[in-house]
Amino acid sequence: MMAREAGLKRTMIRMAGAALLAGGILGSGIAVAQDNMAVIEARKEALKRAGASMKAIQGFVREGSGSAEDVQKAVAVLVEVSGGMPTWFPEGTAQGVGKSEALPAIWQNRADFDKKVVAFQTEAKNFVPIAAGGDRAAIGKQLGAVGGTCKACHDSYKAD
Ligand code: HEC
Fold first, then answer.
1. For residues 75 and 69, what is the distance between their CA atoms, to the nearest angstrom?
2. What are the residue ranges spanned by the domains of the chain?
3. Which fold does the domain 41-157 belong to in CATH?
4. What was the pLDDT predicted at 25?
5. What is the whole-number distance in angstroms between the Cα of residue 47 and the centre of ligand 1?
6. Are 97 and 37 in contact (CB under 8 A)?
7. Cβ burial 53-92 (10 Å sphere, 16+ → b, else e)
8. Using a 6 Å CB cutoff, which residues line ligand 1?
9. Residue in 154, 155, 156, 157 to alter for ligand 1 test, most ligand atoms within 8 A of Cβ
10. Sign of the C-alpha dihedral computed for residues 86, 88, 92 and 94 taken in this order
């Protein structure tokens, strides 16, 4: 092989390598974007379930609808949802991506946001023995405590 030909071949191999690399980076960028969309959809689904649970408990407290067992099930959902929350807000999932209503402030005040997640987790866990007790007044009181943690976070970090 002549020296010039060998040089050309090397150049072509380099170019092919660069194209592959660019393709790989682009490909993984798309994969990340799809992951973020899935994360947003999943957390919205979970938070909807939390909302439905709060409504069910409210029905029990205010109108005596459902049973104490239903309240326990609803509280279990709150514990589950609050437990998942720490991993549901990766960078790249703020308002503007998909249907996200998560304000960019979450990533500017991450420590405060995380504290509000913990407050929700704590009050949801505190709810377990109270729900098991079945006392309507006590359940109503704890419903208020949990509701306060939802509101505290939404006021700062959820678009309305
Ligand atoms: C630490 C912060 C935080 C806490 C605590 C929290 N939320 Fe949210 N919630 C959010 C954010 C941020 C969004 C917007 C998520 C999105 O659009 O991707 C949201 C969205 C929602 C939605 C809308 C879901 C949809 O369909 O778009 C509901 C319903 C909801 N939350 C209910 C609750 C309830 C009920 C509680 C308490 C039991 C709660 N949240 C606690 C931050 C929080």
1. 10
2. 41-157
3. Four Helix Bundle (Hemerythrin (Met), subunit A) (1.20.120)
4. 59
5. 5
6. yes
7. bbebbbebbeeeeeeeebbbebbebbbebbeebeebbeee
8. 40, 43-44, 47-48, 50-51, 54, 78, 100-102, 113, 116-117, 120, 146, 149-150, 153-154, 157-158
9. 154
10. negative
Q: How many residues does the chain have?
A: 160
Residue 30 confidence (pLDDT): 73
Q: Over its length of 160 residues, how does the chain's per-residue pLDDT go in tens digits?
A: 556 777 767 666 666 666 655 556 556 677 778 899 999 999 999 999 999 999 999 999 999 999 999 999 999 999 999 999 999 999 999 999 999 999 999 999 999 999 999 999 999 999 999 999 999 999 999 999 999 999 999 999 999 8
Instruction: Say how far apart CA 57 and CA 155 lie, in whole Å.
Output: 22
Amino acid identity, residue 36? Answer: N
Residue with tokens 């208020």: 144
Which ligand 1 atom sits nearest the alpha carbon of residue 93?
A: 18
Ligand 1 atom 30, closest CA:
47
Query: Does pTM top 0.90 for this prediction?
Result: no
